[in-house]
Write a structure and sequence with these properties.
CATH superfamily of the domain at 50-260: MetI-like
Mean pLDDT: 83
CATH class of the domain at 50-260: Mainly Alpha
Strand order of the largest sheet: 6-7-8-3-9-10-12-11
Number of helices: 22
Structural class: alpha/beta
Low-confidence stretches: 263-287, 609-616
Shape: elongated
CATH topology of the domain at 50-260: MetI-like fold
Amino acid sequence: MTRPRLTPVAAVAVVAGLALAAPFLGLANPTAMSIAHRMAPPSAAHWLGQDEYGRDVLSRLFWGARASLSVAAASASAACLLGTALGLAGGFLGRVMELLALRGMDVVLCFPPLLLALLVVTLLGPGTATLIPVLTLVFLPGFVRVAYAGVLSVRAHDYVDAMRVLGAGRLRIMLRTILPNIAGPILVQLSLAAAAAVVLESGLSFLGLGVLPPAPSWGLMIGAARSTMAQAPLLLLWPCLALSLTILAMNALCDALRDAVDPHRAPDRRPHRLLNRLAPGLLPEQHGTLLAIRNLTIEIDTPTGPIQPVRDVSLTLGPSETLAVVGESGSGKSLTGLAVMGLLPPVARIVDGAIWVEARDVTRLDEAGLRRLRGSRMAMVFQDPLSSLNPVHHIGNQIAEAIHAHRRLADRATRQRVVALLQRVGIPDPARRCRAFPHELSGGMRQRAMIAIGIANDPRLLIADEPTTALDVTIQAQVLDLLSRLKHEFGMGMVLITHSLPVVAEIADQVAVMYAGEIVEQGNAAEVLAHPLHPYTAALLRSAPAEDGSLPDSIPGTVPPPHALPPGCLFAPRCRHATPACEAARPPLVAAHDGHRTRCIRWSELVSVPSRQAVA
């Protein structure tokens, strides 16, 4: 967060300071009347003159600022806090909270703001005690809608899912991750509400429905001066000038604050801090098979009926092993990884199978149980670090957030841990880099920072979803080497989701090739890459860049969508070796030899078919 521009800060501070200091400035009594000096011009004793009752205009301006600004600040702040809370809850939690927040505000919006204020004040009577709740109600829908719209635009970003992966609860995500990203629009709305509150208070006081006389108010002063403006026009000028300058200063201040909370505005920034360190408990140590997925089937309801983008998937991973899940986009790789983390979208559900992480069936855990696992025993690195990292927080703060989600450390110990993690993932000058924002780092550095967040609590299982996407070849090799080194240092198992077979050759021990939601080939990585038994695997190999520089062979067609799967072998429409028998029935996943399995009825015939091996 940058330092706001000093001019609007100083202007608002002067107005507020003068209003607060009114009792200590030695001003005349704002209600004391001197009928003999009605509408007297400015003088040494009365710098701005006297009004229609002989009261000191300067004193009434200062005391009137106290009334106008206190009503505006109280009503705008109350509307901001309540509206932001309702918008956050409605946008992030959805369902009942969304219905209550939006439909309730629709009812309020049915009434024009001024008419609503007039109605309530007329029924309950004028006065400050009535004005504050009335103006709060008037401004509430604006804050709810701004916060709700902001949540909808932010909650789909990967860095929100990353916080869920870390095991953070809903309240923590809303306050620590989402709220800072929507603070700018809320501040703008606050500026508008505060300025509008000053105007509405003045308007209601002008009509005799606001601050009650003889208490001073800018609206009362304007109303009284209207009848005497022909004889004493300055009496109308002073409160109008004070009102206009105050509104301009408030808008300028909030615009400056809006710019200050945007990390892209300036090169040197400090993060704004909200609630922090709401840590769930540590997960007890467990032993056994690291990851076992058995017959996993995921279903999604659609207007045309349910679809199954992942069907009958079984995978096993041991400690210090790397399992590569390979396939084109739409094969179900990422959805399988999200299922392991318990992060399936609301429309998706597991209808069959089980997922065991260290002897715990995560499909049977509630959200609290999943949060204890995420970020501590299992972690996930997403494919796009620029969207996965929170843009308004320093890199170091985001790593510290991962630590604090599962353990309590002192500030000094946390900083030492953050610097050590950045150093471990190969980021130079880690003490300085931890104060950088995500957009200030290169793509490779951002991915290293994401890996540091993933390993912050020494997880036993790491899921890396396309970790080298959009990186050049040199940086890809560095990231893969880093993952391989960390795997051995921590003794953790890693699931590598990728579409690149060269990546598999670099790092994987086991490989599972997925196509259209199901596994079509599975086995030892070296064996599968050297002797593919399924035409799809062979086609992926041919489509990889060749060592001799020749053009790769593309795979004709596209992956079929889950609602339009072809009969028989799903790859048959794109396969150069397909026969009528391939389209007759869905082939099972059969064991060929030494744990090498394939879903091709002609695998034994195709073993001798030559294919260009693009991967060593």
